[in-house]
Amino acid sequence: MKLVDVHCHLEGERFEKDINEVIKRAEDAGAVLIVNSGVNPETNRLALNLSKENKIVKPSFGIYPIDALIHKFKDLKDDYPREIVEFDYKEELKWIEKNKESCVAIGEVGLDFKVIEKCKNLEEVKKEQIKIFEDIIEFAKKIGKPLVVHSRGAELEVVETLEKHGAKNVIIHSFNGNKKLIKRIFENGWYFSVPAVITRLLHFQMLVEMVDLKQLLTETDAPYLAPVAGERSEPKDVAVTIREIAKIKKLTEKEVAEQIYENAKRIFIFS
Questions:
Q1: Mean pLDDT, rounded, for 27-55
Q2: Distance from C-alpha of 133 to C-alpha of 139, rounded to nearest angstrom
Q3: Confidence check: pLDDT of 133 > 80
Q4: Alpha carbon of 33 to those of 7, 8, 43, 258, 265: distances in Å?
Q5: What domain range is 234 assigned to?
Q6: What is the pTM of this model?
Q7: Cα radius of gyration (the chain)
């Protein structure tokens, strides 16, 4: 089976000791494409370097919504410990444009209202996130790249913003929105990428049941969203998602894997 992981983070500390083994395990499982998503200048460059060393790993250059705001709101924090370094997102877009032939997508980008809930200037932070996201959507359209979109705590706002700007080639990663929004995204012709945590979250099982297989993709968000709580996920775990989708759709794993590979070929240019 040809397997694809359309969203993961392999450039981080949790993979630095065994990255080659991780990629080999993915290849042994059948992986032919691993899209490694950056979130800021440092990780974008690390993702680019990793892709030069491993043929099946392709970079997606991103600007995470929290990282993009740190220059203006110095006290912002993510919900897991990491240093967020200040940068100018417009300058990073210039770098991405110069290196656009090296990436398969723009992402991880989007909105995250969950981690800013306790901000004193909440509405200002939300407005600034949306403004930056709008700039990135237009940028992706300009350079002809699909978007890999984060939507935590801002599912409706993400959908509305993408619709406002007529976005076409969109992957909504690990979507937690309600049934109405799932239907709306499906009707817009966008894709959902489903993580291996589907084994223990009924929400993703429901999403897979609702959505036509032609608009589904597989991801791991590695090292996060593992099929077993407390473990590190890896790109090989897309095989777990394939198995769960096959059960829900009452198809063989081979049929599911083949269709998802075809879906990936429609949205990404890779070889």
A1: 97
A2: 10
A3: yes
A4: 10, 11, 19, 13, 10
A5: 3-267
A6: 0.96
A7: 17
Output the CA–CA distances (angstroms, integers) from residue 124 to 43, 65, 128, 164, in the order listed.
27, 14, 6, 20
Res. 30: pLDDT tops 90: yes
Contact between residue 220 and residue 196 where contact means Cβ atoms under 8 Å apart: yes
Q: What are phi and psi of 148, to 5 degrees?
A: -110, 115
Spatial contact of 167 and 146, defined as CB atoms under 8 Å apart: no
CA pair distance 219, 166, nearest whole angstrom: 25
CATH classification of the domain holding 100: 3.20.20.140
Domain count, the chain: 1
Maximum separation of any 2 CA atoms in the chain, in Å: 51
Sign of CA dihedral 146, 150, 151, 157: negative
- Amino acid at residue number 214: K
Mean pLDDT confidence for 172-189: 98
Residue 203, token pair as written in the block: 């929400």
